[in-house]
Here is the input.
Amino acid sequence: MPERPSALSFSCWHGLGNDYVLLSGFEIGERSPESLAVAVCDRRRGIGADGMLVLSEPPTGPMQFRIFNADGSEAELCGNGLRCAAAMWADRLGVTDVRVSSSVGTHAARVHPTTPQSWQVEMELVPVIIGPSHVVSLEGDAVEVHAAAVGNPHAVVIIDDVSQCDRLAEIAAAVRVGDSGGGVNVHLACLSGDHQVSMWSDERGVGPVDACATGAAAVAAISRRVCGGGQAEWNVAMAGGEMQVRLPSDEGPVVMAGPAERICSGRWHVAG
Here is the structure.
């Protein structure tokens, strides 16, 4: 077996401002991916990112995908990361259709280059499972929290006005009080028109982020339920940009469409 290198090859990508360091599972070898994620994602002492993707590239079949948050915790799924992985894999193979396998399923993607460093990716996630809502108290206000799972857990709070988005941190903290399931991604959503919604996200293990693709799927599904309609196509606006979400009429997987952009690549010398 060839010796694994002491310097790791990496590439940096982002999807709507949600940025990742992509590493080879073979090169990581026996290193702890949790500890490596903390070092890699440090924006002052490392490469800097919201998360680290560990990709294993088999001779045949789908690419194997793992996602670690900036605090070292492993997540089940990450939509923006999936698009980046799919774009990287499609570019390397010179194809437009690829599959990426995560801990919750295999995701088919269609990848179209838009510039030499960016791609538009249409990709399957998993079915959205909407759970029961509950109420949390915040400075005397009763805040309704809608639960949804898109391979990973989400909590959605519908707000009446975009000015309320500055309450994201305190609402996220209130939602997570007493949580014993490893944390939840918290989103504020403001319906801004017919099948249009704006969203602000605080991700577990990361904090505020410019975009969250699985969160966008959760927000679209909750918005459809709140609106009482069957609209399948939703446009979700986030700080990093807009993403399209297509909800199935049955219990099939939700489909997202959005960009993936390569930022840079290089070699990182890591101690240990």
In short: The helical segments are 25-28, 33-41, 79-93, 168-176, 213-227. The chain has two domains: 7-124+259-269, 129-252. The longest strand covers residues 255-269. The chain has a mean pLDDT of 92.
